[in-house]
Every structure is written in C-alpha cells, then in structure tokens.
Write a structure and sequence with these properties.
- The structure is a single chain.
- The chain has helices at about 5-25, 30-40, 45-65, 75-95, 100-120, 120-125, 140-155, 160-170, 175-200, 205-230, 230-250.
- It has about 250 residues and is mainly alpha-helical.
Length: about 250
C-alpha cells in the first residue's frame, strides 16, 4: 500500500472536496473511490474503506444541521426506518455480489437523476413555502426511502441523489432540510454497512481515516454554506453535480 506524501495529500484533498459535494448534493464517491484505488486497493476493498470517510462526514454534517435547527427530531425516525432496512439488504448484497454489478447500477442512478433534474427540476427542488408531508401520509415515500437504502448499502456513490429524490420528490422538503435528513439517513445505513464490512474484514482503516479527515472538514464548511446560500444556487449546484456524476460514471 502506497503511503507517500502524494497519496496522503490526494486522499485529504479529495476527501475535502467530497465532503462538500456529498453534503450539498451527492456522488462524490466517484472521486474518493478512484483515490483509494490509486493506493493499490481492489474495487471491493475501496468500496468498503470509503465508508469510513462517509460515516464521519455524515456525523459532522448532521451535528451542523442540528445545531442550526434545520433537522427536526420528529422527522428523523420515520425516514430512518425504511432507509435502514434497505441499507441492511444493500450491504449484504455488496459483500457477496460480483463487482461487475457496480458500474451499471451507478450509471443508471446518475443518468436517471440527471434526466429528472432536466425534465422535472421542481420535483427535487420544491418552491419556498411548500409544506412537507409526513411519511405516514405518503406510502410511496416509504418505498422510495427503502430503495435508496438498498442502493446506499450496496454502493455509496450517488446515494445522495437518490435520497434527495426520495425526500424532496415525495415528501417535498426544501433542499436545506432535505440535505439534513439525507445526511442522517446516510449516517444510519452507512453505519450498518460498516458493520457488515468490518465483519468481513474488508476495511483498511489508516487510509479510511486519512480520507475522513478531509471529508469531515468539507462537510463542516458545506453546512455553513447551505445555511446562507440562495435556494436557487443550491438547486443549480445539485444540477451541475448530477451532470458531473453522470459523466464520471460513463467514463469510469
């Protein structure tokens, strides 16, 4: 395993950018997975090790959104249950499924989200003042969150987009609260996925923690930006990231 100054700097820098992107949109594992693989990791080990940075990034962002009162406690459990159940299924699939499944699934998710943003942008960026639904009022939200959990447990890359579509599209949360709940959901099923990967001894902790030092700083700064940003700026950032995610998936 290569622990040169270059690879360590690459992990921290890539993690920092990924923390910003994942907090405000999603898909930054398209950056962190190749960075881990540059160190000589096979794809399945990189996929598992990547979750260390994702987990700690989500802890940082969740605490930031909660401190800013953009994360309502009453909303957490209803959205967590279906995503956690899906995460368990996805993590076990990831541990035993062939690696060749990863790219088609990632590519489909990225292109699907890009088309959704082009065809129906208001679906994932509700107008200001929209009153959100409860999960109990929208059975389709339960299904969408479960599917997002399965995807996130299987392959981390792009799961933020799937959760945004589920939370903003079915429950109509604004993008700031959507991102706050997205980070909570991701935190939950990433913790479950970590448990499965630890059980299967698939995590390399040192590079994972080096990466996490960057992701935590990036997510911390991204929360501060999200709280002050114009909603239209957040929407355009999300759109640009979906396009970039699609291009990255096509080229990978």
């Amino acid at each position: 395993m290569d622990y040169s100054v270059f690879t360590i700097s690459l992990l921290i820098g890539t993690g920092f950018i990924a923390g910003i992107i994942n907090t405000l949109a999603g898909g930054a594992s398209n950056l962190t997975l190749p960075a881990l693989m540059v160190m000589g990791m096979p794809a399945d080990i990189a996929n598992a090790t990547n979750r260390v940075g994702v987990f700690l990034q989500n802890v940082s962002a969740t605490l930031g959104f909660r401190k800013a009162k953009k994360l309502d406690n009453a909303d957490i459990l209803p959205v967590m249950i279906p995503s956690l159940l899906g995460g368990v299924v996805g993590a076990f699939v990831a541990s035993y499924a062939p690696e060749v499944w990863l790219k088609p699934l990632l590519l489909s998710a990225m292109i699907g989200m890009t088309l959704l943003m082009i065809i129906r942008p208001a679906l994932v960026a509700p107008p200001e003042g929209t009153v959100p639904f409860k999960v109990s009022q929208k059975p389709s939200a339960w299904v969408a969150l479960f599917v997002a959990g399965v995807y996130g447990g299987f392959v981390q890359a792009g799961v933020g987009f799937i959760l945004i579509a589920a939370l903003a599209g079915t429950l109509r949360y604004d993008l700031v609260r959507t991102n706050a709940l997205k980070m909570v959901c991701t935190l939950g099923f990433t913790a479950l996925a970590l448990g499965v990967f630890i059980w299967n001894d698939q995590i390399l902790w040192l590079p994972g923690l080096i990466l996490a030092s960057g992701t935590m700083l990036g997510s911390h700064l991204a929360v501060k930006f999200a709280l002050k940003a114009n909603p239209n700026h957040l929407k355009w950032f999300l759109f640009v990231m979906t396009v970039c995610g699609s291009v990255a998936a096509l080229m990978s």
